Amino acid sequence: MTQGFSGKNSNDVTVAAIRQGDITIDDVRIHPETLEHQAQVAEQHGNPQLAANFRRAAELTSMADDEVLALYDALRPGRSSQEQLVAHAESLEARGAVRNAELFRQAASAYARRGLTAK
Amino acid sequence: MSEQPIGRFRFMDQQNVNLDGFATPDAELGLIAFDSPHDPTPSISIHNGEVVSMDGKTIDEFDTIDEFIALHGLDLSIAEEAMAIDSLQFARELVDPNVARARIVKLASGMTPAKLAEVLAKLSAAELVIAMTKLRARRTPSNQAHVTNRSDDPLLLAADAATAAAFGFREIETTVPVAGDAPSNAIAVSIGAAVASPGMLVQCSVEEAAELAMGMRGLVSYAETVSLYGTEQIFVDGDDTPWSKAFLTSAYASRGIKMRVTSGGGAEALMGGAQKCSMFYLEARCVSLARAIGSQGVQNGGIDSASVAGSVPGGVRSLMAENLMVMVRNLEACTGNDALMSESDVRRTSRTHPIFIAGSDFICSGFGSIQRYDNMFGPSQWNSEDIDDFLAMQRDWGVDGGLRTAQEPDVAAARRRATEAVTAVYKWLGLGDFTSAWAEQAIDAAGSKDVPDADLMLPLSASRTILDTNVTMLDVIAALAETGFDVEAERCLDMLKARVAGDYLQTAAIFDEEMNVLSLVTDPNIYSGPGTGYRPSEKRQKEIDTIRQQKSVSDIRNEQATYRTEDLVATGNADVSHDPRDVVIGVSPATGREIWQTLSGISVSDALRELLAGLEEEGCVGRIVRINDTVDLGMLGLQAARMSGSGISIGLQAKGTALIHRRDLAPLANLELYSVAPTLDKELYRLMGINAGRHAKGATPEPMRNPYSDEAIEARYHTRVVGLVAIERECSSDTAPEAMEVTR
Asked: Is residue B2 one of the residues assigned to a domain?
């Protein structure tokens, strides 16, 4: 039994329900617990990096599409200062997105060293 | 002396292969497949659980690619053991059926890019095939199609997506010539694919953020064009870093969307940023990074720079070795054979063939299922004109290349339904209206040039409406259901629900037509020598073996029946003649019974009329006798000669092969043989009649030379010959020779 991000049971997501306007995109989005389950499967099949990705993804499920897109943009080269990257890390950490926060911290350090921060 | 090369070289220079560019290897420019003198020696040093040097660089020298790999990409618990293994020894393990895949991927997870590059460079072409057979992630091979067109015509996209699904592709990649058209394209392809099959994965390749945004709306079900590069400079030129790409990878997974990255040897050299390294080493960095960022798979094998790799010695081998490296890293391999890497049909086939027989997760990371001119990625290695070639190759080798034969009425019906579904959905959602003339053209079209009525503005305005009114796949599903396309609505919904379950996020996942996920997890490739690994099911083998062009004896018999005429009839027993002008034309048992047309496409009656007319020109009298007890042309001719007053005969098999015989010769001897039946036209039968007459009179004939051509006559006709001879044999009996007449 799988539930969507909204908590709606997948079995209740039917064409009829969509026609009645009862289904939102959150009903057909993945739930963080499902990603954790998939992370465990990936680990059992010799790919801890894929598992780590699924766990970072689980942290992003609760964020709005626009915020996810904005965070991606912030990580592109030359977009953010080291301080901005660290600030993103702190904000993510405060919301429990510790794995993504770690990614931003590493980026802050690496970008500074390699000249990839905003000029 | 002329300055012009001799004719043999002028002729050779004109061949297609000489349109290809061939580069003198130049390590300074990165124009070298393997082993640049500047490639680092494999090494690793770990202190307190941290990589402090790798592949010849210390931690303070790491660029962002090195750093990300060092931080995330290696299993440090096994790295020192793995790096200590002799590279040749490990290369041997890759091809050894007794060494489990699990051991290979475990050890490889501790190997640096330079180490794995060193290992894989040791494999010969044949060894790459075995290693790929053994090491790919998913047991069942598959294939991906490009579906695009110059006009972003939604009706043609839908019809072509349905066609691709009908031919067996399990993934469809579309893209746009006009960036703004992307949402319309994604919807049209998704609908078209759903018409022909459940479980079709669809992507629309555009700029990274735009592609993710479409995925979030449910308009596409996977992403692939997430590019990695092997040098930091080129990576940053691509407006990304390993960290942004890692985040993007997680962003896709956070919406339950399958994703793989793209890289490929030669890309850095093409962009002038190879830093003197070999293509293969730089690609080893990309593949290592792909694993490090948590991508489930990689599309590589040159891709857009395949022709750069193809221009240097060993380059094509390096493309395949790149693919194998992905498999060794325990990732899904979408194995290139994508951008056309040669103008030569021989070279492009040679480039694909080892991968085709080894099998991969996706043989082509874009088989151009549409016209070359409609492929907005550029022409592919394989295109719509090659689908039948590919199906024949599958059948020849008994190989599953992911395709299947589709019957014309089925494809025609699917194309019609696809255009109807798109028309209905676009109308329902207020995205645009299509004329029936446009739809009819799209259904029939081989390509967008056949759809002059397409409105080029419609996809753009439809896309704006999709974005402005926030149309998601839920709206598309509702529209499909409201307009009577219930099956397609269910199939599109199944693809949305697949994201909720998340099983297709696992390595190398596709859906079969029952919506089962086939992946590294559910369909692992376990190969341990002959008799193991992937074997097509009985049903699948039948699909591979049964192409639409194949003919049985009964097909040939039925075809001959359509040529049946009433102008060639048996009239009674045939006698021996003593008239010196008498020339018997001995015909085979199926003549006037089952075989009515020769291999050259003329009727047997017409061939006989020409023979008779030729004899008459020389003052002889031809007489047709059906010899019923032999199908052998020599015996036919000899028996006829023994009944002939002149002692000269013509033997004619109904399929058209003929000879001139004389009664005192041995059966297999003859005076003239006209053996290449497919080339024998009426004029030649007339000449044969004349010559037989001259033999009868003791005059000098003008021996006819069999016309030759550069066509593959045997390929064209041998199967039909086997069938026609079988029919002759069925018609033969002890019945005495019969006189026959052909009416004028």
From this structure: no
β partners of residue B58: B53
Q: What is the CATH number of the domain that holds A80?
A: 1.10.1510.20
- Give the mean pLDDT of chain B: 96
Chain A residue with minimum CA distance to B472: A25
Positions of chain B with pLDDT lower than 70, given as ranges: 1-2, 705-707
Cα B162 to Cα B156: distance, rounded to the nearest angstrom: 10
Q: What confidence tens digit (pLDDT) does each residue in A61-105 have?
A: 999 999 999 999 999 999 999 999 999 999 999 999 999 999 999
Residue whose token pair is 């590294």: B520
Query: Do B36 and B276 contact (CB within 8 A), yes or no?
Result: yes
Probe site for chain B from A19, A25, A28 (most B CB atoms < 10 A): A28
Distance CA A87, CA B313 (A): 50
Residue A32 lies in a domain: no
Output the six-digit token pair for B698.
Answer: 């003791």
Can you give the residue range of the structural domain that contains B737? Answer: 555-742
- Measure A73 CA to nearest chain B CA, in Å: 8
Position B607 in a domain: yes
Size of interface A-B (CB pairs under 8 A): 189
Q: Is residue A19 part of a domain?
A: no
User: Which chain B residues in 247-306 lie under 8 Å from chain A, judged by CB atoms?
Assistant: 247-256, 291-296
- Domain total in chain B: 1
Q: Domain for residue A91, yes or no?
A: yes
Q: Considering the domain boundaries, does residue B81 fall inside one?
A: no
Largest distance between two CA atoms of chain A: 55
Q: Is B513 helix (H, G, I), strand (E, B) or coil?
A: coil
Number of structural domains (chain A) is: 1
